[in-house]
Amino acid sequence: MKSRLVIRAGVALAGVALLAACSGPTGTNTSNTQNNSAPATGDLKVAVITHGTAGDAFWSVVKVGAEDAAKQLGVGVTYNSDGDPGAQAKLIDNAVSQKVGGIVVSMANPDALKTSIDNAVKAGIPVITINSGSAKSAEFGAMAHVGQEESIAGEEAGKKLKAAGKTKLLCVIHEAGNSGLNQRCDGARSGFGGAVENLQVDISNPTDIEARIKAKLQSDTAVDGVLALNPQVAVNAASAIKGASSKAQVATFDLNADVVSSIKAGDVLFAVDQQQYQQGYLPIVMLKLFKDNANTLGGGKPVLTGPGFVDKSNVDKVAEYAKNGKR
């Protein structure tokens, strides 16, 4: 049974389109560390280490993907995360000292993780990077990268907003120091072709996010589009638009239940879906194939999980899977 699952997973991976991203916290939980490790079983032990914060719905879906693959393939998986780059590096160091059989790691701040990842590679542990940091993945010695290319996703979002008739766009960056978020806005600027202005906010302060967006819309009535880079920020932006009596419309990166509801209600135009379940699931399959059959995937290029788009045309179908924590 396991061999048939591996074969089917390998075929599915081969069909993943080459398109590759990063999301910050979606809640207000102030704790940076998440340690929800499942018991490690099987002859392959994999440590999944991300930069998500506790209570982050986005990373909960990644975790579910990794655990589903682990159950199906008989792999032991532990999941740990920390939004602080230094603390995340220590989690990698701990995994190396435990001599795990593989490491899956997101790299929102690649340089802070370089030494730890180098040490893992030197120890003979295969590393797969996910979600962010694709530009440094091969350089750091990772076997592959699974995710969404931020600039490509941003460009496509910009094109969709332009096609919707928008003329001036506000791109809301919610996490300082996250290079992927800037790449999203830069890509949107390229695809939009019109005026795009960045606005920096703090994801940990939703009240301030709404106030800042509202103030910007009131001071610049030419803004008719808001691109959020996080689903919770999208909800804050939609509320700010109503508070400012603005005619602007919101689009966002990534999904949660509130965004699904907002798309249905017409408060959000669309969501850029990087299908983060696959960012947890596929690396476990890849490491299992590598261990059992010396298979690799990607050919040195990212294995892309997006961008896909969720709007009114397909939101009902996606919502069915979101209820199961897989979208």
Compile the SSE list and pairings.
Elements: H1 2-14, E1 33-35, E2 45-50, H2 57-73, E3 76-82, H3 85-97, E4 102-106, H4 110-122, E5 127-131, H5 134-137, E6 144-147, H6 150-163, E7 168-173, H7 179-192, E8 195-200, H8 206-219, E9 225-228, H9 231-243, E10 249-253, H10 257-265, E11 268-273, H11 276-293, E12 303-304, E13 308-310, H12 315-322
Parallel strand pairs: 2-3, 2-4, 4-5, 5-6, 6-12, 7-8, 7-9, 9-10, 10-11
Antiparallel strand pairs: 1-3, 11-13
Subcellular location: Cell envelope
Signal peptide: 1-20
Protein name: Simple sugar transport system substrate-binding protein
Short description:
The protein is of the alpha/beta class and 327 residues long. 46% of the residues lie in helices and 19% in strands.
Please state how the strands of the largest beta sheet are arranged side by side.
1-3-2-4-5-6-12
Sheet bearing the most strands, described?
7 strands, mixed
Principal-axis shape equals elongated
What's the pLDDT, averaged over the residues?
Answer: 88
Helix and strand pattern: HEEHEHEHEHEHEHEHEHEHEHEEH
N-to-C terminal Cα separation, in Å?
26 Å
Uncertain segments are 1-31
Under CATH, the homologous superfamily of the largest domain reads Response regulator
Radius of gyration: 19 Å
Please, how many domains?
2
Structural class: alpha/beta
CATH architectural type of the largest domain? 3-Layer(aba) Sandwich
Helical stretch count? 12
CATH third-level topology of the largest domain = Rossmann fold
Features:
alpha/beta, Rossmann fold, 2 domains, disordered N terminus, transport, Peripla_BP_I, sugar transport, carbohydrate binding, Bact_Solute-Bind_Prot2
